[in-house]
Design brief:
By secondary structure, the protein is mostly helical. The chain is built from four helices and no strands. The chain has one domain (about 35-154). The chain is elongated and about 45 Å long. Keywords: Membrane, Transmembrane, Transmembrane helix.
Length: about 150
């Protein structure tokens, strides 16, 4: 028997793995649909409004939809400004999925600027207990959304 030939049972006839057409080979991530970043921002806005709604319900301050939107406005404005400042709608850099530093900046900016606007606009004060609860709640929803989004889009 010729020793230079490999027995047929040892030869691997499987073709090499092909590139998956839906993955970017440089990052091993699927291409990001254009609508995903605006959807993430919409979800953030909805979560911030939900945070305000829970607060109003806990304090029996049912002011209707307009009251809810007026109370949420400082935090929504702060969220939009800090999201824009961190490039939150960029599909290329995917900052809307990152907890550090983008998510932390958006969270801290939403909290600080939202509280400041709340006081400046005469919508209420900013007692320490409220700041602590708002900080924890906003961290949970804004950073939690980024954690889930990063996991889902990897």
């Amino acid at each position: 028997m010729d020793s230079s030939r490999t027995p047929e049972s040892v030869v691997d006839h499987t073709p090499p793995p092909a590139e998956l057409p839906d993955r970017d080979s440089s990052t091993h991530r699927r291409p990001t649909p254009r609508w995903l970043a605006p959807l993430a921002l919409f979800i953030d806005v909805a979560l911030v409004i939900g945070f305000v709604a829970v607060g109003q319900r806990e304090h029996d301050s049912a002011a209707g939809l307009l009251g809810l939107l007026a109370t949420a406005a400082p935090f929504v404005i702060a969220l939009l400004l800090t999201t824009a400042a961190t490039g939150g709608l960029s599909l290329r850099h995917r900052s809307w999925t990152r907890i550090w530093p983008h998510g932390v900046i958006v969270w801290a900016g939403t909290l600080a600027l939202g509280m400041s606007l709340r006081v400046i606009l005469g919508l209420g004060g900013a007692p320490l207990a409220f700041i602590i609860v708002a900080a924890a709640s906003l961290a949970l929803v804004l950073l939690g959304r980024r954690l889930i989004t990063a996991w889902m889009t990897r």
